[in-house]
Structure formats: structure tokens, C-alpha cells
Design a protein that fits this description.
- 56% of the residues lie in helices and 0% in strands.
- By secondary structure, the protein is mostly helical.
- The protein has one domain (3-188).
- Helix 2 crosses helix 7, helix 4 (87-95) packs across helix 7 (153-169) and helix 6 (130-141) packs across helix 7.
- The longest helix has 19 residues, at 103-121.
- The protein is globular and about 60 Å long.
Length: 221
């Protein structure tokens, strides 16, 4: 698929986050999930199990989710994508914690995705070139991918897109947004101890200091 397509998809998701407010969009979702199910693992590192597995995903599912999220938010030179931001780690930890009630949703969705890709292109999603991966993603988004019952293709797409956005822009303490990649992308300054009146009213990206997340603040308290 052309780089213009990647730029368009990335710009759409970034603009959606900027419009909603990067911090508010993801913190509300995390707070709601943790109120219902308790906090997810917050070390920012997935626990490796035997065979290289993560906190929830096996190796095959992890590779599929990593490839799928990268097509949702592809990287470019100087602009990090889902892989660089470690979105996979965020989703993996969330499904082992706050989003544990969605484990079966993911298992069934990933199985249906694999079956659809093999039937359509005789190969799993990770083996397809970017153009065909984008065709698969579009089919899910439009609810046109055959073989999905529960979740529906559109529901699976929408959930993965939501979790990709969260993993890209949530505080790094949740395992994604590696090195503040998402915050840097949208010019979000993080939770600094103090802003000047001019900082509070400015529409420009904050450039007054290093980015600060929840883990750094916790260490100082």
C-alpha cells in the first residue's frame, strides 16, 4: 500500500486523539476498566513465559496483533507507529489484568481473522504484504469479512483500534507509549509539576522540560 495511505490512516487516528484530548481519552477508559476489574500490570514490561510468550498472548497471536496494530497506526521516518510505541505490550498486559473479561473475545476474533486470511489469501495475516493486510483490515472495518460470528468483524476491528489508540497514548506505566512516543507525536507534555500561566493558555506544544509520566511522579512521592 502506498505511503499516502499510511499517512492518511496515521493522521486520522492522531487527529482523533488530539480532538478528544490525549490524556482524557485514554485515562477515562483505563479508569473505567480498573474500577470494574482492578488495575492491570503496571510495570511496563510483559512477563516472559516459557517459549517467549507474553502475559496473555502466545507467540502467533502476539505477532498477529503487532502486525495488525501497525497497519492501524503505521510508523514513518520520524513518526513512531504502533510497533515502536510497544502497543502490543500494552494490549498483552491489559488482557492479563484490567481487560481480562475480553480474553475470549480476542481468542475468538484472532481465530476468525486467521481463518479468513487463509481462506482469502492462503496465508496468515502476518505473512501478507502491507497492501493485502490493509485489504483485510478494511474488510473487518466494513464488517465484510466472512466467518466472524462473535465477535463480529466490525466489533473486533473497533476494539483493536480502541486498544491501539490507548496503547499509543496512555501513560507509559501501562506498558505502551514507549519512550513517550505517542505523547511526542501529538505534542502532549505529560503531567508536569507546574505550568506557568502562559503555558496553560498557549495552543503550542509544551517545550519547557522533559516528559513526565505516572511512574516518575510516584518515585518522588
Amino acid at each position: 500500500m502506498s505511503s499516502k495511505h499510511d499517512e492518511s490512516r496515521r493522521a486520522f487516528l492522531v487527529s482523533a486523539v488530539v480532538g478528544a484530548g490525549a490524556a482524557g481519552l485514554v485515562s477515562d477508559a483505563r479508569a473505567q476498566a480498573e474500577t470494574q476489574h482492578g488495575p492491570a500490570e503496571t510495570t511496563g514490561q510483559a512477563h516472559a513465559h516459557a517459549g517467549g510468550h507474553g502475559a496473555f498472548f502466545n507467540d502467533d497471536d502476539a505477532a498477529t496483533v503487532a502486525a495488525f496494530t501497525e497497519r492501524l497506526l503505521p510508523g514513518a521516518p520520524g513518526q513512531p507507529g504502533a510497533r515502536e510505541a510497544n502497543v502490543l505490550n500494552y494490549i498483552d498486559l491489559a488482557l492479563a489484568g484490567a481487560y481480562a473479561d475480553q480474553q475470549d473475545f480476542y481468542r475468538r476474533g484472532l481465530n476468525a481473522l486467521d481463518a479468513y486470511c487463509r481462506k482469502t489469501h492462503n496465508a496468515p495475516f502476518v505473512k501478507l504484504d502491507p497492501a493485502r493486510q490493509d485489504d483485510i483490515v478494511a474488510a473487518l472495518e466494513q464488517n465484510k469479512a466472512a466467518g466472524f460470528t462473535w465477535p463480529t468483524a466490525a466489533a473486533f476491528f473497533n476494539t483493536l483500534r480502541t486498544h491501539t489508540i490507548e496503547g499509543m497514548f496512555a501513560d507509559p506505566i501501562y506498558g505502551g507509549n514507549k519512550d513517550f512516543a505517542g505523547w511526542r507525536l501529538v505534542g502532549f507534555p505529560g503531567a508536569h509539576p507546574a505550568f506557568t500561566p502562559a503555558d496553560m493558555t498557549s495552543r503550542e506544544a509544551f517545550a519547557g522540560g522533559a516528559l513526565i509520566g505516572l511512574k516518575a511522579q510516584a518515585k518522588r512521592s
